[in-house]
Amino acid sequence: TWITNASTGNLRIGANVTNVTFFPTTQAPGITVQPAAKVTVLAGQRATLRVSAAGGTPLSYQWYAGNAGDMSAPVAGATSAVFTTPVLNASTVYWVKVSNGLGSVNSTAVQVVVAGTPSLTYTVTYNGNGSTGGAAPTDGNSYLSGATVTVLGNTGGLVKTSSTFAGWNSAANGSGASYTAGSTFAMASLPVVLYAQWTPDSVPPPVGALAMHLHYPFDAGTGTLVEDRGTAGFNHSVTVAAPQWTAQGKYGAGWGPADMVSSTPRVQPSNAGDLNFNPRANAFTIATWVRVGTTAVAGYRTIFDKTEGSNRQMRMWAPGSWSRMTAYVGNALVTLTLPNGAVLNDGQWHLFSLVNYNDNGTWRFRLYYDGGVAFAQGVSGTGGVTNGMLSLGDTAVGGNPWRGNLDDVRIYGRALSQAEIGQLYAGTIDQPATATYAVTYNGNGATSGTVPPSQTKTQDMALTLATNSGNLVRTGYTFAGWNTAADGSGTSYQEKSAYTANAAAQLYASWTAVAVVSDLLLYFPLDAGAGTLVEDHAVAGADHSATVAAPQWTAQGKYGAGWGPADTVSSTPRVQPSNAGDLNFNPRANAFTIATWVRVGTTAMAGYRTIFDKTEGSNRQLRLWAPGSWSRMTAYVGNALVTLTLPNGAVLNDGQWHLFSLVNYNDNGTWRFRLYYDGGVAFAQGVSGTGGVTNGILSLGDTAVGGNSWRGNLDDVRIYNRALSQAEIGQLHAGTLDGLVVQGVAQ
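^ thats the sequence. predicted structure below, dont judge the formating
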């Protein structure tokens, strides 16, 4: 059966047909194996990329440079399933298009990373930015620089009290680029954080039984903003041009002069329309703590006032004496003489509460002192509602300021009972939840390790920031603390430093690029934890990365993952580094150091157990092995042999990690070698042999010919083209020499 350009059918042999194109009834192409997502090469090398596809033949291939789908840069001659790149000195991206007569399909992109060049993909994270509920959405994608990012919506249901979600912005304060759900932007060459934006509600939510219309806790302790934490009314937060804060408030910080006798700065709440109570129609409570120093001068000292013309809707003041307090409600007045000869200017905190309530059809008000036992009472006046501005710390027109401090000012849209005034005085009623802020961490390009858990910052309390507890590592860099910006342009914080801002924060790991150790020829950190590739992270020598057909990884290495069986007693798979010509040391001409961590389980059988070997015929250039006992270690250098008995009756099969280092060095014209154990205090020494150079292959975990495998694990294998000193062996044992990745310490 064939498909023609007109119909599908059977053609009779000998039929006369013209202008017909035939296609076999096959399928459009499909990719069965995508190219590797990421390939790493050294500068000056090439990468080989592969794709597997199925479909009607013939299949045609065309490779392109750039993001998947970008056909602006086809690679000339790259028209097969296997593509070898040109020599690379900078990281780049490739993809392939596979076609036949029925269609085409695009592969995913391949990142070809040249070691030491920046990452090619970046992440987008979302921050709740002060949210009080819900969760920020998560974008699990990694984006190439310039790729199109589609902004997510508020899929996690983020909410913020008395505010409405208003999209995202690249800056927490809204000064950056704004985005809505579904909008797009081009990915930058660094991670991006999008912060939720919030618009204060213009209409208050319904008043709850205990909800506060206004609550000034005065806990900021600094700045010009007096923040309203009330949840039932409008947002009455306000900026004061000349603020005064005291560190010693009733609860946390407070408001007013530190000397407790000077004038208190006036605070006039914004958006105060919901505070226009009618004294004969609305129940309300206004309560505040006050403190006056002993030398404060008496006079007309106003705590709060809401007056328009001659209509004094509500006012509370000390009328020329510190032993009395007076209040208006709707022009009706009461005066309370403090009980038992008490005075206000005693330097202590006192609570005053003005309560308006309906007493079986008659509107009354009470002025309570402290816990509510002492109070004065009157019938609420007929002044009605006034739109005059509410002032705290002075009258509405000014000139009669309070002297001393205020704290924890509250306005309820209901009348608190006498018992509740007692609870308010005791600090046990309707205490709003303290504001908290999420502090999260981002690895910012880390190649291994985990970020610390998120932390919670409590309002006005310093938070001790996390350490690098998850051992974040980035190849070629040292960890340098945290920063509020991925590119390091924000505020920097050291580990365990104090974070004091009352704001959510995402902190990025800071990395300091360091010079790569030029004398480290081979470095197998053995941190992959999976796969067949044992990667060489050193860049001074050849690339000794090797593929092992039957790998075994252990999750519990000395640093991160490690090599060998999880049971720590079975045979260790042999690793034979590739391109090992630069490891052909002459024992009587070249200084070198070979160091590795080993671990052996307690039930491992002793025998001829080889850690590494470089032998050709009878020329044992380098070898390190346990010779039939776990209490000894033997080494060859140029056919010369030393045996080290472990100190203090130690044995290797104790299930712990131990460091062995073989060092060849010139001792004033005589070539010697040392076999160090752990930190270098214990060692055996000999004169280097005359075996000369051998081209025999280097083997880790067994001899070159096999059959004498190590039992247990290996980790952090290093070969230097110089002799480490005894002190440096100690540093290597302590993990402070060159760091745990290829990092530079001046040698």
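The longest strand covers residues 349-359.
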